[in-house]
Design a protein that fits this description.
Layout: E1 7-11, E2 16-21, E3 24-29, H1 33-42, H2 48-59, E4 67-71, E5 74-79, E6 89-92, E7 96-103, E8 106-111, E9 116-119, H3 122-144
Antiparallel strand pairs: 1-2, 1-6, 2-3, 4-5, 5-6, 7-8, 8-9
Length: about 150
């Protein structure tokens, strides 16, 4: 399900998850974004906590950790803010075609379905997306050599 969407966030006003792509938005009831992502990870035999721990160990990150939910279909979620932030949005990197800085504090993201998003916290997000892609290349290159 997550592989079809580019951006995921929590709508506090209506207590629901918003799943967004070029075609529009879909909504799911959930108590929190963490609970929703954990439920999705469990569908692939993982837990959110396990995903976070493995990334912490491999990438040496404590905050803004990417979440590898599945390699097939490719579902990797990158947060634009801390999980404690009410503004947290998760970017589905598996659908990302390109990203670039457009200003000091903005990052432009282009997705496979044609959606283009301009995100705040651009410098940190740009660095995190680069680190995530490097990490994904490491994972896939080590899998293909086995």
């Amino acid at each position: 399900m997550l592989e079809r969407f580019n951006l995921i966030y929590y709508d506090y006003l209506h207590s629901r998850i918003v799943l967004e792509n070029q075609a529009g938005q879909e909504f799911c009831k959930a108590s929190s974004l963490r609970a929703f992502v954990n439920e999705q990870a469990l569908c692939y035999g993982r837990s959110l906590q396990g995903c976070e721990q493995s990334v912490s160990r491999i990438m040496n990150l404590r905050k803004y950790r990417p979440i590898l939910i599945s390699t097939c279909p490719l579902i990797v979620l990158v947060p634009d803010h801390s999980w404690k932030s009410g503004d947290l949005k998760l970017i589905q990197v598996g659908n990302l075609v390109s990203f670039r800085m457009v200003e000091k504090s903005r990052c432009l993201l282009s997705f496979q379905d044609g959606q283009i998003l301009e995100m705040e916290e651009g410098k940190r997000l740009f660095r995190l997306l680069n680190e995530t892609l490097t990490w994904m290349n490491y994972i896939f290159s080590s899998q293909s050599s086995q």
